[in-house]
Each structure stands twice: as structure tokens, then as C-alpha cells.
Amino acid sequence: TDRPDGVGLREHIATELARARSRTEVLTDAVDDADLVRQHSPLMSPLVWDLAHVGNQEELWLVRDVGGREPVRQDIDELYDAFKQPRRDRPALPLLPPPQARAYVATVRDKVFDLLDQVTFTDRRLVTDGFAFGMIVQHEQQHDETMLATHQLRSGPAVFDAPPPPEPRVRVDGEVLVPAGEFTMGTDTDPWALDNERPAHRVHLPAYAIDAAPVTNGAYAAFIAAGGYRDPRWWSAAGWAHRQEAGLTAPLHWHPDGDGWAYRRFGRWALVRDDEPVVHVSWYEAQAYAAWVGKRLPTEAEWEKAARWDPATGRSRRYPWGDEDPTTTHANLGQRHLWPAPVGAYPAGVSPLGVHQLMGDVWEWTSTTFRGHPGFTAFPYREYSEVFFGDDYRVLRGGSFGTDRSACRGTFRNWDYPIRRQIFSGFRCARDVAAEEAAE
Ligand code: AVJ
Ligand code: FE
Q1: Are 344 and 169 contacting, i.e. CB atoms less than 8 angstroms apart?
Q2: Which of 120, 150, 261, 274 gives a 20 to 30 Å CA spacing to 375?
Q3: CA–CA distance from 308 to each of 45, 209, 277, 297, 301 (Å)?
Q4: Ligand 1 pocket residue status of 187, Cβ below 6 Å
Q5: pTM given for the model
Q6: Looking at ligand 1, which atom is closest to the CA of residue 388?
Q7: Is 428 in the pocket of ligand 1 (CB under 6 A)?
């Protein structure tokens, strides 16, 4: 997909912008206007805020910065600035009502299509390979995932329907042994990779073992049944304090049902199925489960080596299966399905080392705090990722059923607070391997 300048790049950008917008429309047309302005959880924005914020970012970066055009609505910049307006306060703002928000994003988009006809992709670094357009596509798709999480928190009757994910095609269990050695982490070449994925750099890891699949509901339910939520031995000090204070007893959206569990997914009750990856757990819960099974969370580098490193060539791939963009057989991405697929459902997505379902299904918590790769430079602005570097956030990898393929690849990095679980978060475990075991 090397489209340095031609028609191909323009067409590709137009398609990706349109694809993002139709997803946004599905998410915002599914409910009435009263529902769009309501706050479904203090953790989330009203859907109408996400909608106009998407348009405002597109205006700032494409219409004004790349295009050098007159502002469409400079007066609303403050309202839709995520740093100035904390989520819990957004419903009280004088937001554009739904019809005006829809008209605003449409006006901005018209100007962007006009700009796209005229832009010269070689002009400046911001537009090389269409980067600024790609950034805006990914931004809208990320908000579309956030809006899907808002829908999951909404009470009331279901408004979405989707076919269930595919059934298992192969049996997957146990762990995969990854030999000690170097691999290339991050990228210099993926044209739409964001600043925090760059630069490519060599990382040496000692041998380790990583689960061949994400931790399932069945395995996680065993942790609950064994009293895992009542035993501080498995929890970090901060995790135990949070477990107590928040009264955690099971993943978000789970409720006891007879001997087992049921959970609410987009307005419908379903029995918790044992072979699906667990979703809606915080980093603290993931860490406690891993301790209970005598393992730990993988580091971010361990996750990426398992996902990208090809022992036959020594190269790091864009995705576990190769360099080609995901298709429906590779991974459960793109909101085609509304929950994670059972383990073994995507044999075509396996990594060279034999690790399954790294992309799609659930975002996977890693033990790593969010920081820049060695040699990081903020581009095009510090606010995308650099201001979040430090000890507060943990990195998640791989994308979920709610993530679009444009906002997800082997190098893509997501981050959140360790208490968060309204996102589509799960995990897999890893462990150190002694030299004798590694040599076997
Ligand atoms: C990368 C998902 C953590 O939602 O806060 C959206 C993406 N950045 N608008 C977020 C993002 C600016 C970001 N995450
Ligand atoms: Fe945003």
C-alpha cells in the first residue's frame, strides 16, 4: 500500500473517510435526539459531544491547518476541546443540538473533500502519504469505538443487532514459548502510524512464555469461584484498595445467574459463554487473575514480539498473519460483531509463533506504563500522546471487536487508567522461562 502521491492515495483517503463517517452515523442515528444529549455514564461523553468533537478536530487539522481555509465555527473550539472539558461536565455545556451537530460535521466534511481534490501530498511532512487525513480517519474511528462503549453503558432496549462471531475452528490452549533474542519493535515505515508507534528500534527479550489465546470467561469465572475477589494475596496494594472501594466482584456487566453468570451486551441479556475471551475487566483485575494462576501480564514488548516477530526471517510483520490488511477471516474487528469471538475462531490470524487472536476481540492489558519509544518525537502535536506519558496509564494492545482496522495494527498502542473497564478490555498471561526450559 505505497501510494506516495497519485490518484490511488486520494481514493484511498476518500474511502476511509467515508467508511468512518458511515460508522459514526450508525452509532448516532440508532437513538433519538434526547438520547444523544443524555449522559449514559459519568465516564463517557454524551454521544452528541463525540459527534461534534470529531467534526471539530477535522476542522482544526484538515480545513484550517492543512487547507489554510477560514474557520467553519471557531466559536465552538473550547466546547469540544477534550482537555478543557472533563467528560463528566460535558452534558452541562451549551453543545450544538443534534441537528446542528450533524450539519456542522457535514459542512466540515464537504470542505475536506474539496481540499482532498487539491492537496499536494509532497508539500509538507503533515500530508506526506496522506498522514493528516489518516490521523483524522483514525481519530473518528477511535471515537466510534468510544461511542460503542457508551452504547454498552446505555440502559433501555437494544438498538443494535449483529450476527454472532464465528464458532471455533481449531482447538487452542496452553502457551507458546518465545526464545530469547532481539526483535524490531515499533515502525518507521507504516505511513499512518502515529507518533507513539515510532521509531522502529531493536529490543532484546529473555525467553518467556505467553498464552496462546486471551483468558476466557470460563477461566476467569474459576478465579471468581475460588474467591479471587476476596483474597488480597492476588492483588497489588493499589488494586486491592480499588477493589474494596469500588466493590468489584466480577467483570463489568456480569450478574449472577443460577450457578453461573449472565451479562448485558447492548441491551440484551446473554449467558456468559466459557470459551469467549473475558471483556470489561480493569488492569487491576487482570493482574490479580494472572497472579492467581502463577503468571503475570506480558510486557508490551512481549506482546509485540509474540504478535509480529517472524523467526523464519527475523522480520517484524505489520500484523500477526503478515503485512496485508485484515480481512474478515483474520480477526474480529470493525463492529461486525458485538462481542468477542470464542477462542479458536480465527486460525487465519495466528502469528508465526502460534499465538491466536492477538488482533481484535478484546484490547489486551500489558504490564507496561505508557511512554515514548526510545527516540520518540511528538508529531504533529504533544496532546495526541506525549502528555499522557508517565506512570498513570497502562498500555493495551491488539484492538477489540469494536476497533476499526484503520485504528489497529501490530504496532498500534492504546492506553488507559488501570481502574478502567468500560472499554472492551481483556488480557492474556505470560511468565518468565528458566534457561533449561527455554533450551528444550
Ligand atoms: C488512544 C483511545 C486513549 O480516546 O482518549 C481520541 C484516542 N485521542 N481523541 C482516547 C483519542 C483523542 C484516545 N485513546
Ligand atoms: Fe478526540
Answers
A1: yes
A2: 120
A3: 35, 15, 21, 18, 10
A4: no
A5: 0.97
A6: 3
A7: no
